Design the sequence.
């Protein structure tokens, strides 16, 4: 996750695949829910099709952090998701 650059996002599935466990997207989601290390850019990991995902019940904070990096969020979805997605 630390490799995801500012202004880009990856899905839970992308992170699972990068870790060598392509079907472990739920495990990634669980880890993201409990991640509180500011050195890990958890806000850059989103749900499939560019939906924000939970972010521990703080979707508004996730949207704010992404917006600060130039990622536009509208109605809980990443605008231009294909262009912002990092693999």
Sequence:
């Amino acid at each position: 996750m630390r490799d995801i650059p500012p202004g880009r996002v990856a899905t839970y599935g992308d992170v699972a695949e990068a870790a060598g466990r392509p079907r472990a997207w739920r495990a990634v989601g669980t880890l993201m829910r409990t991640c509180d290390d500011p050195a890990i850019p958890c806000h850059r990991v989103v749900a499939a099709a560019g939906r924000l995902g939970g972010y521990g019940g703080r979707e508004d904070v996730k949207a704010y952090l992404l917006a600060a990096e130039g990622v536009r969020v509208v109605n809980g979805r990443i605008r231009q998701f294909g262009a912002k997605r990092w693999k």
In short: The mean pLDDT is 93. The CA atoms of residues 57 and 83 lie 26 Å apart. The longest strand covers residues 10-11.
